[in-house]
Amino acid sequence: MERLSSAYAYLWETCGPWGIALLACMIILFFVQFWYWVGYYGRIPSYRNARAGDARPPVSVALVVHEPDYDFLENGLPVLLGQEYDDFEIIVTDLSGDVEFGEALAVIAEHNPRFNVTRMVRDARFPISDKMAFNVAIKAARYDNILLTTVDSRPASLQWIARMARGFDGAGIVIGYCGMEGASAFSSRLIRLDNAARAIRWLSAAMHGKPYRGTLQNIGFTKALYFGNGGFNYLNMNIGEDDLFIQKLLETGTAAAVIVSSNSTVRQKIWGGTGWWYADRCMRSNAFRHYPAKVKTFVAAELWSRALFFAAAAAAVVLFPPELKLFAAGLLLIRFGLIFFEMRRITRRLSEKGLMRAVPLYDLCSPLYEAWMAADRKFRRSPGLWR
């Protein structure tokens, strides 16, 4: 007690009441960050997927083609049709309106019983959304277990369906991970890291039994569950298939399974630089305002505690006496080391490579980035958001 009293007297004399308050805030914020990264996000590397059982349920994979995409025909579709699984089908809703491309799809369907094509005719007066196109594909599905993906993403393994199908044993929703395809440019690394960092939040929440979203490129549910809840008709927006609709399904008490491995991952194509990524993120993040309050608090608390910790540590380094400057700097370095250690473990589990060099910059700037995006969403409407 005498030592504590002496330490308090020293702090009061050298820092004053505001300095003590700043020091206390910095320590509390450090432990908040510790809880997020070790106690919550740290679940990802050690998480156990559903084990392979005797049941291998038939699966329908649904996706939508918007434009003539011959790269998909030559490289993406063969990976889907070549999946090492007994009972599955690939259903494509063709919105391209291109005769030649449509004929190419028809030829493939004619020679492969596992491939089916549905077509929708575009009308400028009545735009067709992804939700409508997926509705058509899911209606045409022969099997009750549905996996969704997109033409700009492809499975990283021929075991993708087999791994994801395990989740249907005891769960109505199956959540997988989608990474961005690798690139050496630093902007591409930031895009991949931002994608992984957001996935860490919802994957860890699902692993703790509190799922709130997935990713359209790699998610599944049963056909009965889909139509029993009205299908993709939530709000009049062109987004929400992998978060708002999933939240609606979860309200019914439906169980969700998480499958994360190198074989269950899909990779999405990077279509541009940071400008393209920001515009896409800004539009899709409009769904966040409709999330449950506890989810918004969970996400915001990590970002705010991180930003305030950086601010408190910087103020302490500037204002405190030398020995306390060292303490603040040491606490800051410990946190960076902790984040680096956990991110290395998590990215290995997610099969993400080459991201660690960008982690310090992203860790420091992402709270400001998210705040800017939130302000942008509030004052500027994203094109293509509403039907």
From TrEMBL:
SUPFAM superfamilies: Nucleotide-diphospho-sugar transferases. Keywords: Membrane, Transmembrane, Transmembrane helix. InterPro entries: Nucleotide-diphossugar_trans. The chain crosses the membrane at residues 20-38, 303-320, 326-343. It comes from the Bacteria. This is Glycosyltransferase. It comes from Alistipes inops.
